[in-house]
Design goal:
A hairpin with a 2-residue loop joins strand 7 and strand 8 (295-298). By secondary structure, this protein is an alpha/beta fold. Helix 14 crosses helix 15 and helix 18 runs parallel beside helix 21. The protein starts with a helix and ends in an 8-residue tail after the last helix. The strands form four sheets. A four-stranded antiparallel β-sheet has the order 1-2-4-3. Strands 6-5-10-11 form a four-stranded parallel β-sheet, sandwiched between helices. The protein contains 21 helices and 13 strands. It has helices at 4-18, 43-51, 55-65, 88-100, 133-148, 164-176, 199-215, 217-231, 235-258, 269-272, 276-285, 323-338, 352-365, 400-417, 426-443, 455-458, 466-483, 497-507, 509-518, 522-542, 551-575; strands at residues 28-30, 39-41, 71-77, 81-86, 114-118, 152-156, 290-292, 295-298, 312-315, 342-348, 373-379, 382-383, 451-452. The structure holds arginine. Residues 118, 121, 123, 158, 160, 327, 345, 347 line the site of arginine.
Length: 583
Amino acid sequence: MSNILDLITEKVQRAFADAGFDPSYGRVTVSNRPDLCEYQCNGALAAAKQYHCAPLSIAQAVAEKLDAADFEMIQAAAPGFLNLKLSGTFLQAYLQGMRTAPDFGVEKIGAGKTVVVDYGGANVAKPLHIGHLRPAIIGEALKRLHAYLGYKAIGDVHLGDWGLQMGLIIAELSSRQPELCYFDPDYTGEYPSEPPFTLADLEELYPTASARKKVDPAFAEQAHQATAALQQGHPGYRALWQHIMNVSLADLHRVYDALDVHFEAWLGESDAEPYIPAMIADLKDRGFAVESEGALVFPVAEDTDKKEMPPCILVKSDGASIYATTDLATLVQRMQDNHPDKILYVTDKRQALHFEQIFRAARKSGIVPPETQLEHLGHGTMNGKDGKPFKTRDGGVLRLETLITEMTDFVRAKVVENRIVEDDQVEDTTHKIALAALKYGDLSNQPTKDYNFDLERFAAFEGNTGLYILYTIVRVKSILSRYGAWAHLPIQPPANACAKDLMIAITGFSPTLQSALKSSAPNLICAYIYELAGCVNKFYHETRILTEEDKDLQAGYIALIGLAKDILEQCIYILGFSAPDKM
Ligand code: ARG
């Protein structure tokens, strides 16, 4: 279906043409004076210059050519505005079209296209911490949005599984248990299938090794060597690496599942490894990669640069590949395997320089062709309630799981205290509400801005919160279930002003999703459903629905709130949460 603004624009453009003017002046916008009209066209003001006549007379001539059946009000206002209000029947037909078309008639702008969304960014052997919350939530929403608008959307967690943290764990383990077969250069048997550590061990090994690296240069050197040896194929280290992966991945799956964040691909830096040698050789051959102080680098600076643009380091002097190497090789792999039209990275904005370097190297070398769009969405930081960086009581980094548990416990206490649901429903309801609080609290902010995490505020029923949206959906669900079967009921023209406001709000669905995709801004969807929920609640308060005696009128009310609820639910699905039946 066409967006409603395009549809009205077409009508006004035709009227411009019929009145003898260039139709391109007929662009319609949402009114910036909602007290006067719903939509407006200011084209007569511009046309007046070309046609050397009074703008008001142009607006009047155009007004006369518009079809009165489409508009409740057509007004040419001084000095030359065209003010419009839609007719009830126009809105009725449009909304009936929305509810009968697949996916509410959204235009599938991504049909036939593929997008890879690189988000999550978990690091193997390190527990997820609160810094991983935003990329997971924002990335999941953007992936779902692309999929809904027709893209083949591949979410890839792009695990950090090939870097120094692996060498650190290997070096730490070898100093604690040198007798393990993984460290025996003469070992030729099969390596054990059971890992030599548990998840708890792993969670202690990494921070210990990481701290030791800072004070013990010999150990740091060992860890670097172990990293390079692992990357070059040391069999014992590879076997250990596989154990680290297995133990850690099981845990990562568990936490992402709890967040309702799901990846189509669990690839990582290590999966780029097979592409590195050929890529390096090719970049050297073609003169893109050059030696510099023992390392191999890809210069990406340009004459027009205003800030310093360091070269991309591809191979360090010790032979190890780093973050940039694996990211560039991952692009080789993605182009080969997925042929994406777009690759969207969601990471902390502090990685902006890294992606700028990678994108430049990918373009210069032709690894990524010009028709494939590369975008880095750098998100801001989630701070504590006081606006300061989030820390545990003893100053450490807060685990993501701890944050989820705190939110869940807070919500569960409310659910139990208010006796919202039967005992066996408490966990499910709590989970849904907690996710809504957490995700909406995040997504309602512009992704690029920092925000403060505030448990009480996010989990409040009032205000611009996820709970307010859920509450609205639950309220409508309850009316619908008391009414009975409703899915077949047709949309009717608005019976009152609140109904009309609600209908107009509903028409914003498709344009909102398109803008949110275009600017990678799930916050636009949040703003949209907040407004839509407001219209639903206003309509509910000002209209007797279940007690209405005129059954036809009542059926129209029900059809309308049913459509609004379906759209709210579709939007929160895209945002990554869902509504309980009761709350
Ligand atoms: N693992 C990285 C980190 O913790 C994030 C990975 C983001 N994706 C990428 N392709 N570089 O910072």
